[in-house]
Amino acid sequence: MATVKIKFRPSTVGGGQGSIFYQVIHNRVIRQQKTGYRLYSHEWNRCLSEVVLPQFNENRKHYLLEIGDKIRMDIKQISKIISDYDHCGCNYTADDVIADFASKNPEYFLSPFVEGVIANLKVLGKIRTSETYATTIRSFIRFRKGRDVALSDMDSDMMMAYEAYLLNNGICLNSVSFYMRNLRALYNRAVERGLTLQQYPFKHVYTGVDKTLKRAVPLRIIKKIKEMDFSEKAIFDFARDMFLFSFYTRGMSFVDMAYLRKKDLQNGFLSYRRRKTGQQLFIKWEECMQKIVDKYDTSQSSYLLPVIKPFVDINERRQYIYAAHKINRCLKIIGKELNLSMPLTLYVARHAWASIAKSKNVPLSVISEGMGHDSESTTRIYLASLDSIAIDKANRMILNSL
């Protein structure tokens, strides 16, 4: 018959909190199950294998009472698993006991934990974050060949192997960092909830932001794109218009373009709040912008551009995502026709505006170094303090060059 013991592992850091783990012994084989329960050495009675409650700290007392209850429930569950095995008379191992316990406590595993986080983010309306976490966990599970992993088993060696897997599959360094930072954020959430101990598994993998080649095209390319004839190719004409509208509006991101409302255009100014940063921006409305808006019938819609359409059985976010994919596919084909050395995408318009503004000697404080900062936070600091009149003047200068 197997036995189960409660063990306390002190912290290797002086004065730090240690951890509780369970030891299952069967046929002289010992297996361990880690927990996320953390407490100080003086809060654990080794002889009685139980939590020692403080006399005066009520907050700590409440926490330790909860830990004690969880330990008792876990031991009761493991003991029942052992009893069931013994009752059926089948052969089993200590590993079987640990596996059964873990399967009945899915919160200790990465996939179900992340699924819970994603579901909660959706309830809170944080759709974009939930999507990035979903993309990350799919990538990691592919690396694991479909196998889930216990949170307590996520260590530095595993993360370095995942990093190597991504790089060997042609993933660029910034995308590797994207996956690692998302996975680290999820892991840290699990640590905060007491589901695993902090083992710093990401300390040897890349989580920074690497400088990338600028995705900008010169003014002559913008002119060529503007002058191309797509009168018989409506889908390419629309893609080109969205690219130009982004350029005309100082490199507005497509998600912000898609959600522009007609009411955002008043008294010759377009105002919107960036979905990525929450920053509110004002753009002087120009004739070239109006020409694009006038080309499309949006009379039945409250949106300024025909990206999100009413009376369509697809939610707004899906419409925006599908439109972005279609537009970028068309732009890449246009880019190939122009023999560009880089893929032409909507994001190129954003870089192009900043790069061309810099070439026109627009002050760096106005264009924030043409989006060339090492981090987006630095760029936001610059952009937040800009004089909108100076920006509009710079925009007029660029548009007049077309």
Show the helix and strand layout.
Layout lengths: L2 E7 L8 E9 L2 E11 L4 E2 L4 E2 L6 H31 L5 H10 L6 H14 L3 H17 L12 H13 L4 H20 L26 H9 L6 H15 L5 H5 L6 E2 L2 E5 L6 E5 L2 H8 L21 H22 L8 H14 L4 H8 L4 H9 L3 H13 L2
Antiparallel strand pairs: 1-2, 2-3, 4-5, 6-7, 7-8
Helix pairs in contact: 1-2, 3-4, 4-6, 8-11, 8-12, 12-13, 13-14
Can you give a write-up of this model?
- The protein has three domains: 3-104, no CATH class; 108-192, DNA polymerase, domain 1, CATH 1.10.150; 219-400, Orthogonal Bundle (hpI Integrase, Chain A).
- It is 52% helix and 11% strand.
- The protein contains 15 helices and eight strands.
- A hairpin with an 8-residue loop joins strand 1 (3-9) and strand 2 (18-26).
- Helix 1 (58-88) crosses helix 2 (94-103), helix 3 runs antiparallel to helix 4 and helix 8 crosses helix 12.
- Mean pLDDT is 86; it is low at 369-376 and 378-386.
CATH class of the largest domain: Mainly Alpha
| Euclidean distance between termini CA atoms | 84 Å
Helical region count? 15
> Any idea how many domains?
3
Strand content: 5-15%
**Main sheet makeup:** 3 strands, antiparallel
Structure keywords:
mainly alpha; DNA polymerase, domain 1; hpI Integrase, Chain A; 3 domains
Question: What's the short story on this structure?
Answer:
The chain is 52% helix and 11% strand.
